Amino acid sequence: MTNLRHLIREIHRRSVWQVLGVFGAASWGVLQVVEVVTETVGLPDWTPSMAFVALLLGLPMVLATAIIQEGLPGSEASAGAAAPETETASTPGPTPASPSTPVQETGVGESTGTTRLFTWRNALLGGLGAFTLLGMSLMAYFVMWTTGIGPMGSLSAQGVFSEGEPIILADFTNRSNDETLDEVVTETLRVDLASSQAITLVPKARVGDVLQLMQRDAMEPLTPTLAREVAIRDGIKAVVEGEVGAAGSGYILVATLTEAQTGTPIATFRRTAGGPDEVIEAIDGLSQDIREKAGESLRSIKGEAPLQYVTTSSIEALRNFTEAERLTDEGEYAQAKALLTEAVELDPGFAMAWRKLSVVLQSAPGGPWTRAETATRAYEVRDRLTELERGNAVAWYHKQVTGDQVAEMDAYERLLASYPDDAPALNNLSITYTNRTRHEDGLELLERAVDGPGESSPAYVNLIATYAYLDRVEDGWRAYERMMERYPGRDTWPVWDRWYLQMVGGAWGAAIESAEEMRVSDGGPLWHSVGAWMLGFSLASTGQVSEALEVIEDDYALSVADRRPSEAMGGRRIGAWIRSLTLGPEAARPALADFISSGGFEAVDLGDRPWTDMVRLLAGVGLTDEARQVLAMWERDLGALAGSGLRESRRMVEAAEMVDPAEGADALETLRGEMNCPRCFDWWLAELREAAGDFAAAAERYESAMSVQSDEPNAFPLMRVIGHERLGRIYGQLGDAARSSEHYAAFATAWADADPELQPRVRAAAEAAGMR
Question: Which site from 1, 144, 554, 755 is most exposed, i.e. has the minimal number of CB atoms within 10 Å?
Answer without folding.
Answer: 1
